[in-house]
Amino acid sequence: MAAYDRLPPELRAWLAQAALPWSPRSALRAWRAALRRSGCCKAAAERLNAIEARQLAREGAWPGHP
After folding, report:
1. How far apart are CA 55 and CA 35, in angstroms?
2. What would the pLDDT profile of 1-39 be if each residue is shown by its tens digit?
3. Which Pfam families does the protein's record reference (predicted)?
């Protein structure tokens, strides 16, 4: 729980609504990479949404996915 508590507030807010159970380490890694690319928390959250959507589609759990 301590690792989760050390995450940036914006990332913790995103994780609270995430569909998949991200580990704090993998979420932070993806978040930092997205922030480096965009420099914007909103764009970083959108990037994590895209990553999660791809994973859900791979698992066949995304609504509307064939």
Report:
1. 20
2. 899 999 999 999 999 999 999 999 999 999 999 999 999
3. DUF6525
